[in-house]
Amino acid sequence: MSECIFCKIASKEIPANIVYEDDLVIAFHDIEPAAPTHVIVIPKEHIESLNNVLDIHKELLGHIHLCISKIAKKLEISKEGFRVVNNCGELGGQTVNHIHFHLLGGKQMNWPAG
Ligand code: AMP
Ligand code: ZN
Question: pTM, whole model, 2 decimals?
Answer without folding.
Answer: 0.97
